[in-house]
Design goal:
alpha+beta, GIY-YIG endonuclease, 5 domains, eight-stranded mixed sheet, seven-stranded mixed sheet, 20 helices
Length: 599
């Protein structure tokens, strides 16, 4: 791609260090921010390509009028800086994080006899924050547990040794009803209060087991000292904690302090799920959505999500479970791609969560804006099936025969990914003798599109053939004869492994089983099979009438149909009494049929 003189000069002097680069347009506005392990190599790659695969990248490069960069020590530093700069400037061509909620935190105030509160605003005053919590319900449940376990103050009094010694305050109702030990008048020492805060920190971190063990020791101690009322208090606390722990998803007690990430993407968006596991239990879970701008890879999206979510949730895990390897190095962190066991189970659980999130978003999108939903699916199909245009009109063909007899074919039609039953068609095979699927497919495709060409009607954007490479080749021969090959897309789907075959390509495509593209192809294929089988059965039944009942002299097709409608089968007709048949078709014809089968 041709570059301006200024860009060429910048490219010549780029360093090979890791860093962050910024692209500016003609108005001096930042339009893209990126990171690089090697600034020179990465930035130059944008300008060395004659034609970018992604159209948006091509447009971006055309708009670049200036480049600035910041050199850092490590690739990790570049990643963190890139993340901060993107959030600050929100350039047009960068991934857009579609998650602007303010989540709640649990705050332990920096003060004597600290209060514990929930807040959505972080103040740098030395207070300790835990979270954020994606669900306020979980946060409130945790605060409720703390309130039932411990007697903490909830007043706004400024407590210090001087004010307490001067008897500045009086006990309030909270003390009288047993919710507070009244540190304001010296009834609780600060050392005792801080021990309680330490236990609360462990619970909020998810280390419930260690607090339970501590309470069990105190319970045993009170029993030995015959202080049974105090022992009962600790017994109640242990029950509360264990009951709370059972509400967490427990996976394995040997998995401690691990982060789990999974990702799914479509044409325009990426979705990343995060699970926080401490002492074998999932204590946090959250899913974020990215809006793609330059067809970013799953690796790029997941890397950005890991940085964002670990920073947001203040994670210090040294092990991260991920679905695939990627190049970016995180110092001091081990990446695990599990193949089996509890960690594999965790990854699958994370993937189920992110899949559910995407499906729910798509369902809501479909309800609110059906056209937008359809367009998204169509764009994804175009990409997955390597089509030159969006497949709004799809036609699918399937053959049916019974031991070579009664050969028929069926065509089903989908418009905008939905069945259009009024356009369905049946075909009776005319030129093929015997069970020859390939020749039958060639005949049906030729007849269908010869008729469309003669009527000057528009062709579909995609043809789907039910079968493998042989059926596809036969269909293509007919398109060649009609001179329309290349004017529309054509694929086949083989039922056994759901392989997708393309013209002149012996290697099939295997789409993800959860792919919307595959589901639509399967649906139209199954519709063609159902529609074809129904027609074939009807034709076969008519053939059966002709050979077994209508061969009887004096019995017409109409009479035979009346008998079959009542008796359901020829066997039942043979076994019925003459008088019973007479009620249906009259005594004279009943006698003819009865004598035929019993003489």
């Amino acid at each position: 791609m041709e570059s301006s003189e200024q860009i060429k000069k910048i490219l010549q002097t780029l360093p090979i260090n890791p860093g962050v680069y910024q692209y500016y347009d003609s108005e001096g506005k930042i339009i893209y921010i990126g990171k690089a392990k090697n600034l020179k190599k990465r930035i130059s790659s944008y300008f060395n390509k004659e034609q970018h695969e992604n159209g948006k990248t091509y447009v971006l490069v055309k708009k670049i009028q200036d480049i600035k960069f910041i050199i850092v020590d490590t690739e990790m530093d570049a990643l963190l800086l890139e993340n901060n700069l993107i959030k600050k400037y929100q350039p047009r061509y960068n991934i857009l994080l579609k998650d602007d909620k303010t989540y709640p935190w649990i705050c332990i105030k920096n003060e004597p006899f600290p209060r514990i509160i929930s807040t959505r605003i972080l103040v740098k005053d030395g207070s300790i924050y835990f979270g954020p919590y994606a669900s306020a319900k979980v946060l409130n449940m945790l605060l409720g547990l703390i309130k039932r376990l411990f007697k903490l103050r909830n007043c706004n009094l400024k407590l210090d040794n001087k004010s307490i010694a001067a008897n500045k305050y009086k006990v309030c109702l909270e003390y009288h009803i047993g919710n507070c030990k009244a540190p304001c008048v010296g009834k609780e020492k600060i050392e005792e209060y801080n021990e309680t805060i330490a236990e609360i920190k462990e619970i909020v971190k998810g280390n419930i087991a260690s607090v339970v063990r501590h309470f069990k020791l105190l319970l045993q101690q009170k029993i030995e000292e015959l202080q049974f009322e105090q022992a009962q208090i600790f017994k109640d606390k242990i029950d509360l904690l264990e009951n709370f722990q059972t509400k967490s998803t427990v996976v394995s007690p040997i998995i401690n302090n691990v982060d789990v990430f999974s990702i799914v993407t479509d044409e325009n968006n990426g979705y990343v799920n995060f699970l926080k596991v401490i002492n074998g239990a999932i204590v946090q879970g959250h899913t974020i959505e990215f809006k793609k701008k330059l067809d970013e890879s799953d690796q790029e999206l997941l890397t950005l999500a890991i940085v964002e979510l670990r920073e947001r949730f203040k994670s210090d895990s040294t092990e991260i479970i991920v679905p695939f390897y990627f190049d970016t190095k995180f110092p001091g962190i081990e990446f695990t791609i599990p193949q089996r066991g509890d960690k594999k189970h965790l990854l699958e659980m994370s993937l189920r969560n992110v899949e559910y999130y995407r499906k729910e978003k798509n369902r809501q999108e479909n309800l609110i804006d059906p056209e937008r939903h359809t367009k998204r699916i169509m764009e994804q199909m175009k990409k997955d099936l390597r089509l030159s245009e969006i497949p709004r009109h799809i036609e699918c063909f399937d053959n049916s025969n019974f031991q070579g007899a009664y050969p028929v074919a069926a065509m089903t039609v989908f418009i905008d990914a939905k069945p259009c039953k009024k356009e369905y068609r049946h075909f009776n095979i005319k030129t093929v003798e015997g069970p020859d699927d390939f020749a039958s497919m060639e005949e049906v495709i030729y007849r269908r599109y010869k008729r469309i060409i003669d009527a000057n009607q528009p062709l579909p954007q995609l043809i789907v053939i039910d079968g493998g490479k042989g059926q596809l080749s036969s269909a293509i021969e007919s398109l060649d004869k009609l001179g329309i090959r290349g004017k529309l897309g054509i694929i086949s789907i083989a039922k056994k492994l759901e392989e997708i075959y393309f013209p002149n390509d012996s290697i099939p495509l295997y789409l993800d089983k959860r792919s919307e593209t595959l589901k639509i192809i399967q649906q139209i294929r199954d519709e063609a099979h159902r529609f074809g089988i129904t027609h074939h059965r009807n034709k076969r039944d008519k053939g059966t009438l002709k050979t077994e009942l209508t061969e009887i002299a004096g019995i017409s097709t109409v009479t035979a149909q009346k008998l079959l409608s009542h008796f359901k089968s020829v066997k039942n007709i043979k076994e019925s009494e003459e008088s019973e048949m007479g009620k249906i078709i009259g005594n004279a014809k009943a006698k003819i049929v009865f004598l035929y089968f019993h003489n």
